[in-house]
Specification:
Elements (H helix, E strand, L loop, with lengths): L1 H41 L44 E4 L6 H12 L2 E4 L1 H20 L11 E4 L1 H12 L2 E5 L2 E5 L2 E6 L7 E12 L5 E12 L1 H12 L5 E5 L4 E6 L1 H18 L2 E14 L8 H8 L4 E5 L13 E7 L1 H9 L2 H7 L3 E13 L4 E20 L2 E23 L4 E21 L6 E20 L3 E18 L4 E21 L5 H6 L2
């Protein structure tokens, strides 16, 4: 009996222990899954792979040309007329375009038409010939005296050269024309991008004098207006152009040689406009101790990364804009192998940690097209009582509060221009706003007492232009804040007073990466 009870007790204990073990294992697995999901949600993703900047690319795949070639519209002329004795046409007097068209139709049986835009000119020339004959004159600037024997295409070329026209053969009909219409697609939305930055500061003294400094930077990109102006300047006097911004097209009616120039311009323009770049922004905070009098040293950061496929260079202070005075900038470049190590092992984070405690404040990635302004904002919106109003009606006192909002955090606008071989020109306007204090002020007394809140906001902003390569990282330092703390303690026989001062330095990492565009011909062919 004792043995059975002991066995039963051990069995129950084993079940309880197993249940506890399973519960802990499930909880740990759940926590790991939640952490992984949270990391995945927090990790910014790029919409496509990074564009390869190699001059020569080796790919084990079927090669297809990624450059489309426009084939001339029309059909080949009948073979019997494309011989050395294909057609013979000789006239003893000048003839008009209408007359020579009728003669070609009579000799070959092929219908010859004149484009609608030329009909009136051809009829006027024909009437002019009749008047000249009546007056006994033979002067006719719009006339042609054919004396030709050979291929039909050669005769058509002579006629086109004489009258400054073009010809095509399609569906059994020869057509003379002066202009044709083509519709071009533009890879641009009907919007105007603008980057506006205003950095202002004001100081006043007891004597009543005020000094102020203001720096305004404005960049506006109105692509459609520039495109319309460029195409209009290519057109001869009789050509026309209509821009359809809503559907992203240009309808051009012009001679074929002009359309070729417009086509080359649009093809080159679309190639540039379709390029896109992903800009990754990370904000780090490095806490330095009081004994580090000289702040964060970028040279020490670069030295810590040297020899690991990473190189760094400091931007000279004289090239930094006036609005960014007091800041330090550097660019980190990485080789192919070093770049992967730079991303995976957080090499820069470790290099910064050698000078102080480093934490990630926020990170974000924004993707934009070439010459398009992209905003990046990570901030907190805080409401406060900005204004109060008290009204009295008889024995009733009514107080109305008007709220205000403070947007504190990190805000940046980036305007990239992608050049050849993965180089970029980047203009960015950056602002960091911090709500440092919120005071309360009361007015009046009794039932008429009101209250407002007075926020103290610290703002630091600057505008800068830099030249970078795709995949390199711009490091910005200089946003520094000092925190002082005091710790007093009393003992039975002694009193101690310990004070410490920490400096928090914000480090901003800006990494642009040129991406493979889904609008490029190579990408479109791979999707088929």
């Amino acid at each position: 009996m004792l043995t059975k009870k002991l066995t039963c007790f051990l069995g129950v204990s084993l079940i309880i222990l197993t249940s506890c073990t399973l519960s802990k294992a499930v909880k740990q697995e759940t926590d790991r899954t939640l952490d992984q999901v949270q990391r995945t949600l927090n990790e910014p993703h790029k919409p496509s792979d990074q564009y390869r900047m190699d001059t020569i690319a080796i790919k084990d795949d079927i090669w297809l040309g990624n450059q489309s070639v426009r084939i001339n519209e029309g059909d080949p002329l009948p073979a019997r007329f494309e011989t050395d004795e294909g057609i013979t046409l000789v006239s003893t007097r000048p003839v008009s375009l209408l007359q020579i068209s009728e003669q070609i139709t009579s000799l070959t049986g092929i219908t010859v038409r004149i484009d609608d835009m030329l009909q009136q000119e051809a009829q006027n020339a024909n009437q002019g010939e009749s008047l000249d004959e009546t007056a006994g004159e033979t002067s006719a600037p719009d006339m042609f005296m054919p004396a030709y024997s050979g291929k039909l295409s050669g005769l058509l070329d002579q006629i086109s050269s004489r009258f400054a026209l073009w010809w095509r053969y399609k569906n059994g009909v020869i057509t003379f024309y002066k202009m044709e219409t083509r519709v071009f697609t533009i890879y641009a939305l009907p919007v105007t991008s603008s980057l506006n930055a205003n950095i202002a500061g004001t100081a006043s003294g007891e004597t009543g004098g005020n000094t102020s400094a203001t720096t305004d930077s404005t960049a506006e990109v109105d692509l459609w207006t520039q495109i319309e102006d460029a195409v209009t300047n290519m057109l001869p006097p009789d050509a026309t152009m209509t821009a359809g911004r809503a559907n992203g097209t240009l309808t051009v009616t012009a001679p074929p040689y002009t359309l070729q120039r417009v086509s080359q311009y649009v093809r080159s323009l679309n190639e540039k406009l379709s390029r896109q770049v992903a800009i990754s922004v990370k904000v780090l905070q490095v806490t330095l101790k009081d004994e580090q009098n000289f702040g964060l040293d970028l040279n020490m950061v670069f030295d810590a990364m040297s020899g690991k496929g990473i190189t760094g260079s400091i931007i000279p202070d004289e090239t930094i804009s006036e609005t960014a005075a007091g800041m330090h900038m550097g660019i980190v470049n990485a080789t192919s192998g070093g770049w992967k190590k730079f991303n995976d092992s957080k090499l820069l984070l470790n290099a910064l940690s050698s000078q102080g405690t480093t934490t990630l404040v926020t990170s974000s990635t924004v993707t934009t097209l070439n010459n398009k302004v992209a905003p990046v904002q990570v901030s907190t919106n805080t409401s406060y009582i900005e204004q109060t109003e008290t009204t009295t009606s008889g024995d009733t006192v009514t107080t109305t509060a008007t709220p205000g909002n403070i947007n504190a955090g990190f805000t940046m606008e980036v305007l990239p221009r992608i050049l050849d071989h993965g180089r970029l020109l980047i203009m960015f306007a950056m602002t960091i706003t911090e709500l440092t204090q919120m005071d309360t002020q009361t007015f009046g007394s009794g039932d008429s007492q009101t209250m407002i809140q007075l926020p103290t906001v610290e703002t630091r902003g600057f505008v800068q232009e830099v030249a970078m390569s795709s995949g390199s990282t711009l490091i910005l330092t200089g946003f520094e804040k000092v925190n002082t703390s005091s710790n007093k303690s009393k003992g039975i026989t002694s009193v101690s007073d310990e004070a410490s001062r920490d400096r928090n330095v914000l480090v901003i990492l800006l990494t642009p990466e040129v991406l493979i565009s889904p609008l490029s011909p190579e990408t479109r062919m791979q999707d088929r």
